[in-house]
Amino acid sequence: LEMSSLSEKDILVLRLDLTDRSSHEAATNSVLKHFGKIDVLVNNGGRSQRSLFVDTNLDVYSAIMELNYLGTISLTKHVLNHMIQRKKGKIVTVSSVMGIMGAPLASGYCASKHALQGFFNSLRTELTDYPEISIINICPGPVQSKIIQNVFTENLAKSIENSGDQSHKMPTDRCVRLTLVSTANDLKEAWISDNPYLAVCYLWQYAPTWAWWLMNRMGKRRIQNFKSGV
Questions:
Q1: Catalytic hit among 109, 130, 197, 202
Q2: Which of 82, 113, 161, 190 is the 20 to 30 Å CA partner of 152?
Q3: Quick one: which of 151, 142, 147 has its CA closest to 50?
Q4: Active site residue 109
Q5: Which ranges form a coiled coil (predicted)?
Protein backbone atom coordinates (compact mmCIF):
# COMPACT_ATOMS: atom_id res chain seq x y z
CA LEU A 1 0.00 0.00 0.00
CA GLU A 2 1.27 3.41 -0.90
CA MET A 3 1.56 5.70 2.11
CA SER A 4 -0.44 8.90 1.82
CA SER A 5 1.41 12.20 2.13
CA LEU A 6 -1.70 13.86 3.61
CA SER A 7 -1.47 15.22 7.13
CA GLU A 8 -4.19 16.12 9.65
CA LYS A 9 -4.39 19.68 8.36
CA ASP A 10 -5.07 18.42 4.82
CA ILE A 11 -8.38 16.82 5.88
CA LEU A 12 -11.51 18.53 7.16
CA VAL A 13 -14.77 16.66 7.60
CA LEU A 14 -17.95 18.69 8.18
CA ARG A 15 -21.43 17.29 8.76
CA LEU A 16 -23.80 18.78 6.22
CA ASP A 17 -27.56 18.64 5.72
CA LEU A 18 -28.50 19.62 2.17
CA THR A 19 -32.04 20.43 3.29
CA ASP A 20 -30.77 22.88 5.95
CA ARG A 21 -30.01 25.60 3.44
CA SER A 22 -29.33 28.24 6.13
CA SER A 23 -26.21 26.25 7.17
CA HIS A 24 -24.54 26.19 3.75
CA GLU A 25 -22.85 29.60 3.90
CA ALA A 26 -21.23 28.82 7.27
CA ALA A 27 -20.06 25.43 6.01
CA THR A 28 -18.50 27.04 2.93
CA ASN A 29 -16.78 29.64 5.11
CA SER A 30 -15.40 26.91 7.42
CA VAL A 31 -13.78 25.19 4.45
CA LEU A 32 -12.35 28.48 3.17
CA LYS A 33 -11.00 29.34 6.63
CA HIS A 34 -9.26 25.97 6.84
CA PHE A 35 -7.90 25.62 3.27
CA GLY A 36 -8.02 29.19 1.94
CA LYS A 37 -9.70 28.10 -1.32
CA ILE A 38 -12.10 25.60 -2.88
CA ASP A 39 -10.84 24.05 -6.11
CA VAL A 40 -13.59 21.48 -6.67
CA LEU A 41 -17.15 21.11 -5.43
CA VAL A 42 -18.63 17.63 -5.94
CA ASN A 43 -22.41 17.66 -5.54
CA ASN A 44 -23.12 14.04 -4.64
CA GLY A 45 -26.00 14.15 -2.15
CA GLY A 46 -29.45 12.83 -2.91
CA ARG A 47 -32.07 10.12 -2.59
CA SER A 48 -33.80 8.02 -5.19
CA GLN A 49 -37.42 6.85 -5.32
CA ARG A 50 -39.27 3.61 -5.93
CA SER A 51 -43.03 4.06 -6.17
CA LEU A 52 -45.80 4.59 -8.71
CA PHE A 53 -46.99 8.18 -9.12
CA VAL A 54 -50.67 7.27 -8.61
CA ASP A 55 -49.80 5.80 -5.18
CA THR A 56 -47.34 8.48 -4.08
CA ASN A 57 -48.02 11.37 -1.71
CA LEU A 58 -47.08 14.79 -3.11
CA ASP A 59 -45.00 15.41 0.04
CA VAL A 60 -42.54 12.85 -1.35
CA TYR A 61 -42.08 14.90 -4.55
CA SER A 62 -41.55 18.04 -2.49
CA ALA A 63 -38.92 16.31 -0.33
CA ILE A 64 -37.07 14.93 -3.38
CA MET A 65 -36.83 18.38 -4.98
CA GLU A 66 -35.86 19.98 -1.67
CA LEU A 67 -32.97 17.56 -1.21
CA ASN A 68 -31.73 16.61 -4.70
CA TYR A 69 -32.34 19.93 -6.44
CA LEU A 70 -32.68 22.90 -4.08
CA GLY A 71 -30.09 21.60 -1.60
CA THR A 72 -27.58 21.14 -4.40
CA ILE A 73 -28.05 24.57 -5.96
CA SER A 74 -27.98 26.23 -2.54
CA LEU A 75 -24.55 24.80 -1.75
CA THR A 76 -23.40 25.57 -5.29
CA LYS A 77 -24.43 29.22 -4.89
CA HIS A 78 -22.13 29.80 -1.91
CA VAL A 79 -19.16 27.95 -3.39
CA LEU A 80 -19.59 29.61 -6.80
CA ASN A 81 -19.37 33.08 -5.21
CA HIS A 82 -15.86 32.15 -4.05
CA MET A 83 -14.89 30.60 -7.40
CA ILE A 84 -16.03 33.74 -9.24
CA GLN A 85 -13.75 35.82 -6.99
CA ARG A 86 -10.84 33.48 -7.84
CA LYS A 87 -11.99 33.14 -11.48
CA LYS A 88 -11.25 29.43 -11.17
CA GLY A 89 -12.84 26.17 -10.04
CA LYS A 90 -14.77 23.05 -10.98
CA ILE A 91 -18.36 22.26 -10.02
CA VAL A 92 -19.04 18.55 -10.52
CA THR A 93 -22.64 17.42 -10.10
CA VAL A 94 -23.62 13.78 -9.92
CA SER A 95 -26.79 13.70 -11.96
CA SER A 96 -27.88 10.34 -13.41
CA VAL A 97 -28.83 8.64 -16.65
CA MET A 98 -32.29 9.43 -15.21
CA GLY A 99 -31.48 13.06 -16.00
CA ILE A 100 -31.50 12.03 -19.67
CA MET A 101 -34.33 9.46 -19.82
CA GLY A 102 -37.58 8.64 -18.05
CA ALA A 103 -38.26 5.41 -16.19
CA PRO A 104 -41.18 3.89 -14.27
CA LEU A 105 -41.24 3.96 -10.44
CA ALA A 106 -38.86 6.94 -10.35
CA SER A 107 -40.85 9.91 -11.68
CA GLY A 108 -39.82 12.21 -8.81
CA TYR A 109 -36.17 11.17 -8.93
CA CYS A 110 -36.09 11.62 -12.73
CA ALA A 111 -37.69 15.04 -12.32
CA SER A 112 -35.03 16.15 -9.81
CA LYS A 113 -32.20 14.97 -12.06
CA HIS A 114 -33.74 16.62 -15.13
CA ALA A 115 -33.94 19.79 -13.02
CA LEU A 116 -30.22 19.56 -12.18
CA GLN A 117 -29.33 19.01 -15.84
CA GLY A 118 -31.37 22.04 -16.90
CA PHE A 119 -30.00 24.21 -14.11
CA PHE A 120 -26.30 23.45 -14.61
CA ASN A 121 -26.51 23.58 -18.42
CA SER A 122 -28.06 27.04 -18.04
CA LEU A 123 -25.55 28.13 -15.38
CA ARG A 124 -22.69 27.19 -17.72
CA THR A 125 -24.00 29.74 -20.24
CA GLU A 126 -23.91 32.45 -17.55
CA LEU A 127 -20.22 31.86 -16.84
CA THR A 128 -18.71 32.59 -20.25
CA ASP A 129 -16.64 35.40 -18.69
CA TYR A 130 -14.99 32.76 -16.45
CA PRO A 131 -13.44 30.17 -18.81
CA GLU A 132 -11.58 28.52 -15.91
CA ILE A 133 -14.78 27.70 -14.00
CA SER A 134 -15.98 24.31 -15.27
CA ILE A 135 -19.51 22.98 -14.91
CA ILE A 136 -19.35 19.19 -15.16
CA ASN A 137 -22.41 16.92 -15.12
CA ILE A 138 -21.83 13.23 -14.35
CA CYS A 139 -24.61 10.84 -15.37
CA PRO A 140 -24.04 7.38 -13.86
CA GLY A 141 -26.17 4.37 -14.62
CA PRO A 142 -26.68 1.67 -11.96
CA VAL A 143 -23.71 1.74 -9.53
CA GLN A 144 -23.13 -0.33 -6.40
CA SER A 145 -24.09 1.92 -3.47
CA LYS A 146 -26.58 2.29 -0.64
CA ILE A 147 -28.93 4.42 -2.74
CA ILE A 148 -31.57 1.67 -2.93
CA GLN A 149 -31.65 1.13 0.86
CA ASN A 150 -32.45 4.84 1.29
CA VAL A 151 -35.05 5.42 -1.43
CA PHE A 152 -38.21 7.43 -1.04
CA THR A 153 -41.37 5.33 -1.34
CA GLU A 154 -45.05 6.30 -1.64
CA ASN A 155 -45.00 8.15 1.67
CA LEU A 156 -42.27 9.80 3.74
CA ALA A 157 -42.60 7.42 6.70
CA LYS A 158 -42.13 4.20 4.71
CA SER A 159 -38.77 2.65 3.82
CA ILE A 160 -38.01 0.02 1.19
CA GLU A 161 -38.35 -3.62 2.21
CA ASN A 162 -36.35 -5.36 -0.53
CA SER A 163 -33.26 -3.59 -1.89
CA GLY A 164 -32.43 -6.44 -4.31
CA ASP A 165 -29.18 -7.76 -5.74
CA GLN A 166 -26.49 -5.22 -6.69
CA SER A 167 -23.93 -7.55 -8.29
CA HIS A 168 -24.95 -6.54 -11.86
CA LYS A 169 -24.21 -2.86 -11.18
CA MET A 170 -20.98 -1.01 -11.94
CA PRO A 171 -18.43 -1.31 -9.09
CA THR A 172 -18.21 1.91 -7.07
CA ASP A 173 -14.45 2.38 -7.60
CA ARG A 174 -14.81 2.22 -11.39
CA CYS A 175 -17.51 4.91 -11.34
CA VAL A 176 -15.31 7.08 -9.08
CA ARG A 177 -12.29 6.65 -11.38
CA LEU A 178 -14.28 7.59 -14.50
CA THR A 179 -15.75 10.59 -12.65
CA LEU A 180 -12.24 11.77 -11.77
CA VAL A 181 -11.08 11.32 -15.39
CA SER A 182 -14.11 13.34 -16.56
CA THR A 183 -13.36 16.05 -13.99
CA ALA A 184 -9.67 16.26 -14.87
CA ASN A 185 -10.59 16.67 -18.56
CA ASP A 186 -13.38 19.23 -17.94
CA LEU A 187 -16.04 17.20 -19.73
CA LYS A 188 -19.31 19.07 -19.75
CA GLU A 189 -21.30 15.82 -19.51
CA ALA A 190 -20.22 12.22 -18.96
CA TRP A 191 -22.42 9.13 -19.18
CA ILE A 192 -20.84 6.54 -16.89
CA SER A 193 -22.68 3.29 -17.38
CA ASP A 194 -22.44 -0.27 -18.56
CA ASN A 195 -24.72 -1.61 -21.28
CA PRO A 196 -27.61 -2.06 -21.85
CA TYR A 197 -28.25 1.19 -19.90
CA LEU A 198 -25.68 3.13 -21.93
CA ALA A 199 -27.29 2.01 -25.19
CA VAL A 200 -30.68 3.18 -23.88
CA CYS A 201 -29.15 6.63 -23.19
CA TYR A 202 -28.12 6.87 -26.85
CA LEU A 203 -31.63 5.84 -27.90
CA TRP A 204 -33.21 8.55 -25.72
CA GLN A 205 -30.82 11.13 -27.13
CA TYR A 206 -30.94 10.23 -30.82
CA ALA A 207 -34.03 8.04 -31.41
CA PRO A 208 -36.59 8.97 -28.74
CA THR A 209 -39.53 7.24 -30.45
CA TRP A 210 -37.66 3.92 -30.24
CA ALA A 211 -36.68 4.72 -26.65
CA TRP A 212 -40.33 5.27 -25.64
CA TRP A 213 -41.34 1.99 -27.29
CA LEU A 214 -38.55 0.10 -25.52
CA MET A 215 -39.17 1.74 -22.13
CA ASN A 216 -42.88 0.92 -22.33
CA ARG A 217 -42.02 -2.75 -22.86
CA MET A 218 -39.34 -2.84 -20.16
CA GLY A 219 -41.40 -0.67 -17.82
CA LYS A 220 -44.39 -2.97 -17.92
CA ARG A 221 -42.26 -5.86 -16.68
CA ARG A 222 -40.56 -3.70 -14.08
CA ILE A 223 -43.89 -2.54 -12.66
CA GLN A 224 -45.18 -6.14 -12.53
CA ASN A 225 -42.03 -7.18 -10.62
CA PHE A 226 -42.45 -4.24 -8.26
CA LYS A 227 -46.09 -5.08 -7.53
CA SER A 228 -45.19 -8.71 -6.81
CA GLY A 229 -42.37 -7.65 -4.45
CA VAL A 230 -39.40 -8.60 -6.64
A1: 109
A2: 190
A3: 151
A4: yes
A5: none
Q: How do the domains of the chain map onto residue ranges? A: 8-195
Q: Are 214 and 200 spatial neighbours (Cβ–Cβ below 8 Å)? A: yes
CB under 8 A, 24+ apart: contacts of 116-124: 116/43, 116/68, 116/69, 116/72, 119/69, 119/73, 120/91, 120/93, 120/95, 123/76, 124/188
Task: State the burial class of residue 3 (Cβ atoms within 10 Å of its Cβ: 0-12, 13-18, 19+).
Answer: exposed
- Whether 72 has a pLDDT exceeding 90, the answer reads yes
State how far Cα 196 lies from the chain centre.
20
Which candidate, 69, 83, 66, places its Cα nearest to that of 135?
Answer: 83
pTM above 0.90, yes or no: yes
* Radius of gyration for the chain, computed over Cα atoms and rounded to the nearest angstrom: 19
User: Could you tell me if 8 and 35 are in contact, meaning their C-beta atoms sit under 8 angstroms apart?
Assistant: no
To which H or E segment does residue 73 belong?
A: helix 72-86
| 178 contacts 193 by C-beta, under 8 angstroms | no
CATH architecture of the domain 8-195 equals 3-Layer(aba) Sandwich (3.40)
The count of other CB atoms within 10 Å of the CB of residue 116 is 23
Query: DSSP character for 4?
Result: P
